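Let's practice the habit of predicting before peeking. Look at the sequence and jot down your guess about where helices and strands might fall. Then scroll down.
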Amino acid sequence: MTPGVILDLDGTLLDSTRIWKEAGARYLASWGIAAPEGLGEALFPMGMREGAAYLKARFDLPENLPAIVRGITRTVEGFYAEEAALKPGARSFLAAMGRAGVPMALATASGRGPVTAALTRLNIEDAFAAVFICDEVGAGKASPAIYQAAAARLERKPEATWVFEDELTAIRTAAAAGFRTCAVFDAESAAQWPALRAAAEGAVTRLDAAVPFVLD
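Done guessing? Here is the structure:
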């Protein structure tokens, strides 16, 4: 039986992590406000509503919080629908898995709307048996629930399933739950790369480099 593959989206399959640091600046630009240096880093750890409150207070925005949240959401959705690109080697990796009959699923913290828009535009939606969303599963990636749900859909046990991630907590979660793990380099999490390489069974700087050991 072939192994299964579970892919993260942002920073693993798509070069999209940066939008979560750029969304605030892009939203401010729609008001003709230039974002100060370091705004993205300040907003990155915040939730959407907390970030909206921060922007409203700091820049004295005229909109109320729900309107600011909607504006930022539209900014993010527009990025996925129009700009988000595949990471290096991603398309050839997907093609190789398809030829080998390896079942694949996506596991992501992003919303279903932006995910669907990006997959459709990039013409890769048919590569995946299913797409799992953290909010829909009811747990983030500090819990193995999303990986377990994906593996069940692929009809594979954890030890026969590869999880590809660019974030340290996610790699550690998957490994602790018995999954095989591969770290994928992303410039936005470059500081974590040594720890990611140490925590994962495999580590690649581009996805197609993982083809040999997935199919071994």
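How did you do? The chain has a mean pLDDT of 93.
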